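Q: Please design a sequence for this.
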């Protein structure tokens, strides 16, 4: 597994875009509350999502631990910062680890010196022969529910008769030796070797089961040696590796305490902590484990629940226990942390497929955040609003469905919403959104209680309202010869308003109303200083007459003759 995809407790699904590092100041607040942030869906159905951190943010930030070590903190100071008010203690004994790589019911090992088989039912142990012809040993379920011991040579598999009157082990069994064991796990058409410290146990997952699981039982620190390299780059500062050793050991001790009698106490995948046996061990991480031997954190005299994630993004998140607090994290932001800030492009259409009950998705509305940091912190509650209904989700739901690195995110506004916000948002003359964004020609539009905003990639987003909007729509809107607006609503002479378009102008004023002027008549009117000149405001739209076009104005009429490109100007 490649850092920082660290653990399913902490890692996100595969991202649908490429992360880009940005920078942003963080805002401090406290206590979760409502946010009501609406992120409208653009016609492209693609959002740009900016965020902070990687993982759930509870407990230690691994990048933060590295940053703290670079700033001179030792592992105890690092751990104490991320798990305040916990106590230091020690852990001893062994831990039972479920090995996911062994997908068969057979437990197969290579022969070695002093290899033994042990019957878990009565505690009897037998030394296995070291015949040079034997290349494999295995424990396999027998038809009567017991466990058969078999060896393999050039002629195939053979049953090894258990000494005494028994033919098989009375129940489950295990292999053990003076040194590490080599487990053979399924790997395509053959078996692949994986070495483990401790013993390897073949155990039925429940009473009466005909299948078997493989469990590695080994001392706690030996287990931690196989965890740390998967959870943190071994090239990192030794104090960060030591902090990771303590946290991983404590988490395993907590898991063990939750499952004292279950046949396994912790798994080896991202659902728990990734554990890879001897093959994962590195000199630097083993040194960190030895330097912190047996050390764990406790709360109320019990192992603490030491969750951790790759990056806090600048704030840790409050967890389910008192010592997992929301803390401003000054150590997480440094040059090596590429996920402190991130940006990805995601498809909003994936939410429509996941939630068909909403119909066409109009907006994602964040209703609750943690209120720690930029945008109000991590997202807690979300409403998907669509043409057919709503869906209520948690921040974690959205994170996994969109493949985000964390729940601390914000969606960049569409160009239309960005224009609306620049005009003053809800306090502007446009009022509040009354529709989602919808396609118009080669662009888009969105309706507001006080007007409408049009957008095309060529000219950007521009607002229209009142008489100007009504005249534009009556003329045919973006598909007319006016095409797209290139300005918003502008003040015009003598208390009127105007808007510019790719193909002309609309002027509006109480009395003469709103009218379209374009083409050669617009050019001629411009020479008279538009509405501020002697002709004043138009009282009709440009319209066809025989051989040309005409517009009537408050101060006269301008007629254009197409054949000669000349004008007849009549003043009142």
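A: Design:
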């Amino acid at each position: 597994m490649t850092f920082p995809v660290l653990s399913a407790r902490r890692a996100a699904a595969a991202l649908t875009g490429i992360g880009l590092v940005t920078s942003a100041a963080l805002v401090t607040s406290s206590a979760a509350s409502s946010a009501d942030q609406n992120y409208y869906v653009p016609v492209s159905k693609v959002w740009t999502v900016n965020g902070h951190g990687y993982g759930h943010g509870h407990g230690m930030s691994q990048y933060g631990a590295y940053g703290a070590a670079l700033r001179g903190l030792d592992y105890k100071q690092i751990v104490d910062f991320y798990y305040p008010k916990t106590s230091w203690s020690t852990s001893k004994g062994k831990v039972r680890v479920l090995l996911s790589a062994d997908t068969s019911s057979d437990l197969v090992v290579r022969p070695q010196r002093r290899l033994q088989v042990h019957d878990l039912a009565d505690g009897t142990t037998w030394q296995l022969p070291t015949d040079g012809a034997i290349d494999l040993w295995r424990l396999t379920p027998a038809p009567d529910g017991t466990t058969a011991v078999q060896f393999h040579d050039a002629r195939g598999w053979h049953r090894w008769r258990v000494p005494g009157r028994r033919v098989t082990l009375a129940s489950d069994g295990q292999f053990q030796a003076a040194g590490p064991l080599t487990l053979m796990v399924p790997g395509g058409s053959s078996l692949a070797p994986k070495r483990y410290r401790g013993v390897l146990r073949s155990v039925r997952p429940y009473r009466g089961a005909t299948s078997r699981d493989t469990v590695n039982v080994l001392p706690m620190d030996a287990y931690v040696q196989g965890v740390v390299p998967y959870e943190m780059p071994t090239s990192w500062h030794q104090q960060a590796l030591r902090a990771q050793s303590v946290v991983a050991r404590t988490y395993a001790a907590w898991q063990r305490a939750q499952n004292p009698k279950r046949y396994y106490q912790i798994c080896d995948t991202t659902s728990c902590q990734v554990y890879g046996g001897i093959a994962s061990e590195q000199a630097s991480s083993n040194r960190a484990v030895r330097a912190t031997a047996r050390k764990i954190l406790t709360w109320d005299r019990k192992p603490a629940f030491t969750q951790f994630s790759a990056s806090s993004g600048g704030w840790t998140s409050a967890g389910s226990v008192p010592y997992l607090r929301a803390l401003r994290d000054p150590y997480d932001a440094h040059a090596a942390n590429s996920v402190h800030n991130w940006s990805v492009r995601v498809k909003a259409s994936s939410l429509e497929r996941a939630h068909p009950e909403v119909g066409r998705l109009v907006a994602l509305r964040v209703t609750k955040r943690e209120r720690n940091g930029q945008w109000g912190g991590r997202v807690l509650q979300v409403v998907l609003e669509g043409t057919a209904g709503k869906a209520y989700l948690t921040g974690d739901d959205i994170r996994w469905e969109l493949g985000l690195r964390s729940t601390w995110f914000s969606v960049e506004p569409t160009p239309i919403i960005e224009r609306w916000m620049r005009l003053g948002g809800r306090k502007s003359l446009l009022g509040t959104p009354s529709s989602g964004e919808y396609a118009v020609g080669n662009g888009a539009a969105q309706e507001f209680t006080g007007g409408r905003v049009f957008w095309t990639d060529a000219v950007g987003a521009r607002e229209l309202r009142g008489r100007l909007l009504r005249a534009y729509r009556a003329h045919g809107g973006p598909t007319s010869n006016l095409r797209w607006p290139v300005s918003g609503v502008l003040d015009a002479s003598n208390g009127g308003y105007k808007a510019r378009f790719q193909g002309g102008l609309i002027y509006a004023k109480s009395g003469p109303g709103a009218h379209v002027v374009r083409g050669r008549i617009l050019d001629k009117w411009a020479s008279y200083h538009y509405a501020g000149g002697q002709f004043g405001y138009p009282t009709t739209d440009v319209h066809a007459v025989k051989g040309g076009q005409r517009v009537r104005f408050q101060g006269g009429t301008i007629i254009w003759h197409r054949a000669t490109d000349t004008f007849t100007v009549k003043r009142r």
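Q: Thanks. Anything notable?
A: The CA atoms of residues 188 and 390 lie 46 Å apart. The mean pLDDT is 93.
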